[in-house]
Design goal:
The complex is a heterodimer of chains A (308) and B (318). Chain A has 308 residues and is an alpha/beta fold. Chain A has helices spanning 43-50, 92-102, 110-121, 136-148, 166-181, 193-196, 216-219, 235-243, 268-277, 291-301; strands spanning 5-14, 17-27, 32-36, 58-63, 77-80, 154-158, 185-190, 201-206, 209-214, 225-232, 248-254, 257-263, 282-287. Chain B is an alpha/beta fold. The chains are: A alpha/beta (308), B alpha/beta (318).
Chain lengths: 308, 318
C-alpha cells in the first residue's frame, strides 16, 4: 500500500520566507507518527501544508495519494489545530454540527452520530454546554470529536495534549490508539520528547528540517556512550568533580541527581570509586536513555545553537 | 507538611490562604506556600490549575480575593510596588521591543528598575553573559528564536538582583539543551541566595525542583521534595517489562482490567496499574501474558504521582 503521507524537497512558509526547508517525509498507513521539536522548528507549518491550509513554496506532497486540499480529501483528512479552533460561544452540539457541515455531512443521522462521538470521547451529557465553559481536558476531547466527525483516514493533530493533566492525556492517547485501530493514520506534533515515545515512529524537526526519523527506540540509541545516574550528597558540588573524571563526557544536574554521559567502557563501580577518591560518597547506577536524554546528549555534543 | 520552607532559614516568601475568584469562578481556592533563600520551588499542574493566577498574586500584579503574602518582609497585598523592587517576574508572554536589539531591550528594563550609568551597563553585560545571550546582543529582538526570547525575558527579570524570582512556564516549547541550561542557571541563581519559583505543566520536570507543589483545580493537592512525593505512589503499581516481549504483548496487557495503560518508555514497556488494583495479584495475573519476559516494579514518574494523588482523593476512579 502506498504511503499515507509523502513529501520530497518540500519548502513552505509565509510571505515567501521558507520556515520548512528541503523536507522529506514518509508516513506509512495506519501508523501513529510523531513530529517532535521545539517551538519554531516548523512543525505547525508542515502540518498546515499536509491538511491543505498552506500551499507549499516548492517540492512534492501527496496525502493519501492526492494533492493536499483537493476535494477528494475533504472528508478523509481531519485537522485539530493548536488551541483547538473551537467556537467558545457555541454549545458542544453546535460545534460538532458545524464541523459536520464543513465535512459535507448533512442533517440525516446527525443526532445519532453526535451522540456516538460524544460517548466515544467521554463527553456524553454535555451537548448543551457552551464550549467556552468547558475545562481544558473536556475542550480537548471536544476538539477530537470535531476532528473525528467525518471518520477521517488521516488525523493531523497539533500539540493536542499541551498543558492538560495526566489523566486527560492518558484518555486522549487511548482514543488515538482506538482511531488507529480502525485503520486511520495519525500525525501528531509535540514539543515533548517524553510524549513522543508513545508514537510508532518519530520525526525530529529542527530549524525547518526533518533531521531524523525512526522508532523511539532507534532514535534513543546513542553509540559509544552510556548514561549513568548519580545521587550525591552535594549534587551541585559533585557536578564539578564528575566533569574532571576521565571517561566522563557530559554532566547534567537534575535536582538531587546528576545525569552523566560517559564512555561506554566506564563502569558504574569505576565512577563510584573515582568519586570516592575525591571525597564524595555517591550512588551510581546505569540508566536507559529515552528520546529526551538522547537528544540532550546530541545537542550538547555538537555544541548546538549559541549564536545567531 | 512539605509546605514549610527548608528548616534553618527564615522564609523569603510566605503566602497564607490565597484565594482568587473571577466572578463566580474560583481560580485559586486557598493556597499556602513558603520559599527559602537558595531554593528552587516548582508549581506543577495542568493549564487552568491556577498556577499563573497564583504567581500573579505573589508578584503583586493581581490582588488576592483573600489571603496574605509577605515577601522579604514586605506585605505584597498592601505594598505591591515596594515588593516589586525585590522580585523578578518572567511572564509567559514577555513584552519586548522587536525593533530594538537584545542589548537595547535589556538597557530599557534596567532603566525601569532605576539602574543608571555604569551600574546599568555592568548589569546588562552580566545578564547577557549569564543567559548566553552575548552573541545575540546586537540582534533585533524580533529575530530571536523562541527559546532565546524566553531567555531574554529571564535576563530582564534578574537585572536588579531580585531576592525572589518567579518564572511562568520558562521551559515550554524549548529544546532539551535549552531546558537543561535554564535549570542549571536557576541552580546558579539559587546558589547565590535567590528564592526561585517556577511553574511548569511538564510533569517530568518535577525532578529538577528542590521542592514542589502539585496544583489541581485551584488547590495544592500535595507538596514536598520530589522523592517524598514519589513515595506516595503505592508500591508495585508501576511495572516495566524486562526482556523482549513479542509484538502482541502490549495489546494483551492493555486489554486486562487491572491495567490502566501500557506505554513505551526508553525502549521498554511501562505498565501502569489501575488505582485500587492489588499489585501482587495483578503481577501474578499478568506474568503468564508476558513470559518469558518479566514484569518488574519500576520507579514511578510524576504522571504516576499525580494520578495516585487524584486517586487518593477519589477523582481517578476507572
Amino acid at each position: 500500500m502506498s504511503a499515507a503521507v509523502l513529501a520530497r524537497g518540500l519548502a513552505a512558509g509565509y510571505g515567501g520566507r521558507a520556515v520548512v526547508r528541503d523536507l522529506a517525509l514518509e508516513v506509512a498507513p495506519g501508523e501513529i507518527f510523531g513530529l517532535a521539536g521545539p517551538d519554531g522548528a516548523g512543525k505547525s507549518t508542515l502540518l498546515r501544508v499536509l491538511v491543505g491550509e498552506l500551499p507549499p513554496l516548492a517540492g512534492e506532497v501527496r496525502v493519501l495519494g492526492a494533492r493536499p486540499g483537493s476535494p477528494a480529501l475533504r472528508r478523509a483528512v481531519a485537522y485539530m489545530p493548536a488551541g483547538y479552533g473551537l467556537y467558545p460561544d457555541l454549545t458542544v452540539a453546535e460545534n460538532l454540527d458545524f464541523f459536520a457541515t464543513l465535512h459535507g455531512l448533512g442533517g440525516a443521522g446527525r443526532r445519532a452520530r453526535r451522540a456516538a462521538l460524544l460517548a466515544r470521547v467521554g463527553l456524553a451529557g454535555v451537548e448543551g454546554r457552551r464550549a467556552g465553559a468547558l475545562s481544558g481536558g473536556m475542550l480537548q476531547k471536544l476538539a477530537l470529536a470535531c476532528a473525528l466527525v467525518g471518520a477521517p483516514r488521516l488525523l493531523v493533530l497539533d500539540e493536542p495534549t499541551m498543558g492538560v493533566d495526566p489523566l486527560s492525556r492518558r484518555a486522549f492517547w487511548a482514543l488515538l490508539e482506538s482511531v488507529r485501530g480502525e485503520g486511520a493514520t495519525v500525525v501528531v506534533a509535540t514539543a515533548s520528547l517524553e510524549e513522543a515515545e508513545r508514537c510508532d515512529r518519530v520525526g525530529l524537526m529542527r530549524e525547518g528540517r526533518l533531521e531524523a526519523a525512526g522508532s523511539p527506540a532507534e532514535l534513543a540509541r546513542v553509540p559509544g556512550v552510556r548514561l549513568l545516574r548519580v545521587r550525591a550528597r552535594a549534587p551541585r558540588a559533585a557536578a564539578g568533580l564528575l566533569a574532571g573524571i576521565a571517561g566522563v563526557r557530559a554532566v547534567f544536574p537534575v535536582g538531587a541527581r546528576l545525569a552523566v554521559w560517559a564512555d561506554e567502557g566506564l563502569a558504574p563501580e569505576a565512577l563510584r570509586a573515582a568519586l570516592a577518591a575525591r571525597g564524595e560518597t555517591a550512588e551510581v547506577e546505569p540508566a536507559r536513555p529515552g528520546l529526551h536524554e538522547a537528544m540532550l546528549w546530541r545537542l550538547a555534543a555538537e555544541g548546538a545553537g549559541d549564536g545567531p | 507538611m512539605g509546605l514549610e520552607a527548608r528548616s534553618g532559614t527564615a522564609p523569603l516568601l510566605v503566602a497564607r490562604g490565597l484565594v482568587r475568584r473571577f466572578g463566580s469562578f474560583t481560580a485559586v481556592a486557598g493556597v499556602d506556600l513558603e520559599l527559602a533563600a537558595g531554593e528552587v520551588f516548582g508549581l506543577l499542574g495542568a493549564n487552568g490549575a491556577g498556577k499563573t493566577t497564583t504567581i500573579r498574586m505573589l508578584c503583586g500584579t493581581l490582588a488576592p480575593t483573600a489571603g496574605s503574602i509577605v515577601l522579604d518582609g514586605i506585605d505584597v497585598v498592601r505594598r505591591p510596588r515596594a515588593a516589586r523592587a525585590r522580585l523578578g517576574y518572567a511572564a509567559q508572554r514577555f513584552s519586548l521591543y522587536g525593533d530594538l536589539t537584545v542589548g537595547e531591550n535589556l538597557g530599557l528594563y534596567a532603566g525601569l528598575y532605576g539602574l543608571r550609568g555604569a551600574a546599568r551597563r555592568a548589569r546588562v553585560r552580566w545578564a547577557l553573559e549569564a543567559l548566553g545571550l552575548a552573541p545575540w546582543a546586537g540582534t533585533p529582538a524580533a529575530r530571536l528564536p523562541p527559546g532565546h526570547r524566553r531567555r531574554l525575558a529571564l535576563a530582564a527579570a534578574v537585572l536588579h538582583r531580585p531576592r525572589v524570582l518567579f518564572l511562568d512556564e520558562p521551559t515550554s516549547g524549548v529544546d532539551p539543551l535549552a531546558r537543561q541550561r535554564l535549570w542549571e542557571l536557576l541552580y546558579r541563581l539559587a546558589g547565590e541566595g535567590a528564592a526561585i519559583l517556577v511553574t511548569t505543566h511538564h510533569m517530568e520536570e518535577a525532578l529538577f525542583c528542590d521542592r514542589l507543589a502539585l496544583m489541581h483545580e485551584g488547590r495544592v493537592i500535595a507538596a514536598g521534595a520530589p522523592d517524598d512525593l514519589r513515595a506516595r505512589v503505592p508500591a508495585g503499581t508501576v511495572l516495566e517489562l524486562e526482556g523482549a516481549g513479542d509484538g502482541g504483548v502490549r495489546a494483551r496487557l492493555a486489554a486486562r482490567p487491572e491495567v490502566a495503560e501500557v506505554v513505551p518508555r526508553a525502549g521498554r514497556l511501562r505498565v501502569r496499574l489501575r488505582p485500587g488494583a492489588d499489585p501482587a495479584a495483578a503481577r501474578a495475573a499478568l506474568a503468564p501474558l508476558v513470559a518469558p519476559a518479566r514484569l518488574v516494579p519500576a520507579e514511578p514518574d510524576f504522571e504516576d504521582v499525580f494520578v495516585a494523588l487524584l486517586a487518593a482523593r477519589g477523582e481517578a476512579a476507572a
